[in-house]
Predict the 3D structure of the following.
Amino acid sequence: MLAVVTFLLGCVPIADTDLWWHLKTGEWILDTGQIPYVDLYTFTHPHQPWIDLHWGFQVVFATVHRLAGVSGLVIVNGLVLTAAALVGWHATRQRLPPWLPGAIWALAAISLNGRSARPEIFSLLFLAAWLWLMERLDEHPRWTWWLPALQVLWINMHALFVLGLVVGSCRAVDELVRRWACGRWGLSPANGTLSPVRVGYTGILCTLAALANPYFEEGALFPLVLYRKFSVEQEFYAQHIGEFQLPYRFFLQHGFQNLYLNVEITLWLVAAGSFIWLAACCRRWSLYRLLLFAGFSHLAWEASRNANLFALVGATVACGNLNEWWSLRHRANRAGWSPADAVFAGLLGLWILAIPSGYWHRWAGEEKSFGFGERKAWFPHAAARFAGQPDFPPRAFAAHFGVASVYTYHNGPERKVFMDGRLEVCSRQTFEAFNAILRAMALLDRSWEGALRDEQGRLPVVLLDSRSSRPAINGLLTQPNWRLVFADPSCAVFLETTEAERLRLPEVDYSPLLRPPKGGE
């Protein structure tokens, strides 16, 4: 039943703004048979190297999109997240009464579905597979040979493949320390089936597997680039990108009003408490689980985007500790279902009914709803198609990464944007210039125009979303050298007045922009 809940929670209309450039890249790979090595989509970085470790995800999603549309992507998203939760559930063999791990994994299911279809859903699945294998290597040491193969798949889906090495390192340290401790200090004794030689060979092969990507050593080292952005440069990026924000700052802004933050805090407390409970009741602790807990707590603390990763690990750690406690205190296997199990099953049944009926999302205060396809009026498809007409400027300035992504999907790579959401391509300097241009638009400062004219003196077509670009829209509406040539509830399209007159485009009514789409629509 919990698997059904996880799947239903994953079935929400897609609102992720990066989806469209991912789909475009997947289609480009399928059509050309090539992997991108340089930037395809921006005119500010025409020869910038592009380490696109998402290419496997992009091919999968582009294929699904061609076969089943956006609704197919929603279904795949739900299935992959459900698979990750199921593998994580079985990572620690459940000896507990069903309601207890069920309650823990219910928290994890909510957190896993905090963000819609993105490449990281496969990272969650591969991470769960690593956790599952780590718990079985004592009994099946030969299964270590699956780990390098898993890494080869992972690195060609998402840049977080390095987390597999983190999990493996935690397990290797735990094995070595337990061998040395020989049952002392509250550590369980190592059973000796996993030899140090096997651990060493496996570690070397898993490390070498990181080179099995189209970018070789640059791809293998790419996680360091990402880590720098949400650690060393976190202060800058967190100002503009919510997923880079520190959770405690998010808490200072919103308090306990956000469901996902509340769930994450609760799950962290449960996982931390499970260590205390095991130590207090049995004088036992697990170095492996403690290292996992510390490492993934650090990631979750550094950026809110890592909350779902911690949820998967935190639930596994908590269940592992409680399973060990139960095994030491209750030698006999549990018999049948208890009244608590029946009550929990009933609550799951109500939850299953509440999700598709809409009660769950309304109660949770989310800007989501159960459904398929894409969120209504959320993406500016009409504006992007309009701005990509044959005689329009071949370059665009889009004031939101989501708008740039949709424009790229409909018009790229032939037509290019100033900047999009690919932070692995677009530098901090470009991001700062992007923000400066938006401020200048709002302040009626025309100095930004000179920086954007091409060799023929043409300015790009400007696309401004109606939700977050109101100051820039108001600024251009008052500029006589700019003309509003398209407006709908989601986006405005501006052309330089001389360009609009050449194309014989009249100024349109701005009133549709006064009714921007809301999150829950």
In short: Residues 2-331 form one domain. The longest helix spans residues 55-91. The chain has 22 helices and five strands.
